Amino acid sequence: MRNLALLCFFVFSLQASAQVKRTDKLKTKDEKNIKIDNTKVNQPVNNSSNSNNTTIGSTNSTSKTKSANDSIAPIDWYKIISYDNKITAVDTSLTIKKFQQLNFLGRDMFGLQSLSNDGQTYNILDYSLVKNNMIPSFGFSSKQWNYYQIEDINYYKVPTPFTELSYRSVVKQGQNLNSLFTTNFNERTNVFIGYRALRSLGAYMNELNSIGNFKFGGSYNTKNEKYFLQTNFVFQDIMNQENGGITDIDLFESSDAPYNNRERLNVYSRNANSMFKGTRAFLNHKYKFNNSTENEIWLKHKFYYQYQSNAFSQADLSTFDSDIRYFGNSYSNSVRDKVRFKNFYNQLALAYSSATLGELSFMAEVSNFDYYYNSIVVKQNSEIVPASLKYDLVTLGGSYAINKEQFSFNAEARQSISEIATTELKADVIYSLNEKYAIKANYHFLSKIPEMTQQMFQSTYMNYNWINNFSNEKIQSVTAELENPYVNLSGNFQLIHDKIYFSNNDTQFDAYGNALQQLVSPKQYAKPISYFNIKAQREFKFGKFALDNTLMFQQVAQDENIVNVPNFITRNTIYYSDKVFKNALFLQTGIVFKYHTKYYANEYNPILGDYFVQDTRKIGGFPTFDFFVNAKIKTARIYLNLEHFNSGITGHNYFATPTRPFTDMRLRFGIVWDFFW
Question: What is the DSSP annotation of 262-281?
């Protein structure tokens, strides 16, 4: 069905290309028509010399000067508008930065540790990647790496229909396919539709992952530019078979036959699986009351409705290999856990915008939460876990933004006035000395509500039932970044109070330091935790050769091992680039080296869909080498990647979590193809 859906997208895009006329007028009033908010936007992506397609269908650089009446549209007319209204152009170039984003998530994976199979969760190496939000989330946060969040949905503005298709091979028996089609019916109306599908069997028992992410939406503005609208709808499902990790660490580390066939290794569960589903409708629109372009008064409204559910099931608990059940005692011999979450969100804002004074706005927000099961649990100590949590969150706030040629400043404050107390303060400053030098700084204070799964949880497993009344987490974060031609430097400092985390209550361990059972529950740490990192990135070029380096140092000050990260992370890429076959093909080939120091890595719990803290076994300290070949022909990018080719040379001690190995050597093929109709 998923392959059929992708085929339908392709056929639809062909039909649309024959029906939709080229709208060359899209170049006029370009920025004004795109912006929803009067904020500073990024400049269009500058396609490097690696790409010969600054103008679609032309290889002549002088085509940049073509007029709007020409039959060929420049590529920088194909606009991508992010959730926060930053504008970039479709980029078909082949660079190392683009290559680093050729994965299932479509983003740079530095600071994330993947597991053995595509579509699984990721272990966080860089703690600054942890997301904190004033609005409480459903939970199951580690399952949502593969989930389209609101900020992940882009909008478009294109002079002709545009299609992007991609294919990526997976670990075993499956594929990763992605499709996007967008078109403008006129210069003010755009629609898009996209589908991402993944199926990967994996190398170990009970490791199949199957994911589908469907999205469609569009944008519109009136001719007089008084009304702007963005909207989208998403439907998503994430199915993971959950084996709980491998039981025989020694057999994996030796990898002697027959255990070099990973299906021979025992796992904690052979019949468990989870299903995470989500549906969301989103609307962002605004109306301008007056006709002035210098002093504008806007009424803004933002709305979304979201329904999510998570189910965890095991048909027969008697299939465990040991007498000790891995997740503890249960109320029955089979598990059918399911929880649901509904969230209505409305934001109404009144804004005054001036070309000289900036924009000042006042806002009111109302969020309705409904988190519920179909049962009530009475524990052995007579504690009752209710069927649902329902409450409203009402907040008032304001923001101010000003953008000048060299300086921009944005600040926002929100405070709840309902029974549930929350506070958020944010400030961003950017100062550009010139085109080469820029300083960025960010401050964020947040008093956040615990996630729903931390507040309440129900399960057939006895240990996984609780109702808590935790205090809010308080987080202060300062981030600074220096951009310059020599080395990009960034740093992050966080001070955390009342940290809420999951940990294991089991006190029995095997010879490797792994707990014999996962009896996980949430806890709150009363003492402060401070976290600091510094990151440096620099690329050196020597003719047709280049060396790209990214390094990070991290330090945590705490009395107990609550926030655990490696002290040092590095990724170094040496590669060769050249044009061949009379400049018809651009080629890149090289080797990627990745390494991080040993640390007490968090372990993954499939019932909670989240990681928990452990401090009995360190992993890491192993190098990985990848060999890659990238090629670009017109708007098609093809890549071949031999991942972790040193796995049989440097020893089988590579783990992503204490019980889950990192991937073995794997040959990966992929293609990304953009169509400009």
Answer: GGGS-BS-SSEEEEEEEEEE
Contact 609, 596 (CB under 8 A): no
Per-residue model confidence (pLDDT) at position 325:
84
Give the residue among 404, 403, 416, 332 at the shortest CA–CA distance from 366: 416
| Contact in structure between 174 and 206 (CB atoms under 8 Å) | no
360 contacts 398 by C-beta, under 8 angstroms:
yes
Angstrom distance (rounded) from CA 564 to CA 152: 27
pLDDT category at 28 given cuts 50, 70, 90 is very low
DSSP H or E run through 14: helix 2-19
pLDDT for the residue numbered 320: 53
Place of tokens 């972790």: 644
| Residue 114, beta-bridge partner list | 122
Q: With contact defined as beta carbons under 8 Å apart, do 269 and 242 qualify?
A: yes
Tokens encoding 521: 């529950």
> Helix, strand or coil for residue 22?
coil
Q: Tell me what percent of the chain is helix, strand and coil, each rounded to the nearest 5.
A: 10, 50, 40
Best CA proximity match to 279, nearest among 326, 238, 241, 239: 238
Q: How many helices (H) and strands (E) does the chain have?
A: 5, 37
Q: Determine if the peptide bond prior to 258 is cis (ω within 30°).
A: yes
Query: What is the band of 27 on the pLDDT scale with cuts at 50, 70, 90?
Result: very low
What are the structure tokens assigned to 644, written together?
Answer: 């972790």
Residue 379: DSSP 8-state = -
What pLDDT, on a 0 to 100 scale, did the predictor assign at position 387?
Answer: 94
One-letter amino acid at 108 equals: D
Phi, psi of 162 (to 5 degrees): -130, 135
Cα 357 to Cα 636: distance, rounded to the nearest angstrom: 45
Cα atoms in the 13 Å half-sphere on the side-chain side of 38: 29
The Cα 451–Cα 277 span in angstroms is 17
Please, which residues have CB within 8 angstroms of residue 220's CB and are 6 or more apart in sequence?
188, 189, 190, 227, 228, 229
Report the mean per-residue pLDDT for the chain: 88
The second-level CATH assignment, the architecture, of 2-676 is: Beta Barrel (2.40)
pLDDT band at 323 (very low <50, low <70, confident <90, very high): low
Name the residue among 451, 553, 428 with its Cα closest to residue 500: 451
Question: What residues have CB less than 8 Å from 314, skipping those under 6 apart?
Answer: 269, 271, 272, 334, 335
- Give the pLDDT confidence score for residue 55 in this predicted structure: 42
SS3 assignment for 322-375? CCCCCCCCECCCCEEEEEEEEEEEEEEEEEEEECCCEEEEEEEEEEEEEEECCC
> Do the beta carbons of residue 554 and residue 565 sit within 8 Å?
yes
* pLDDT at 33 exceeding the cut of 80: no
The CA angle 549-554-556, to the nearest 5 degrees, is 175
CA-based nearest residue to 104, from 199, 5, 10, 173 = 199
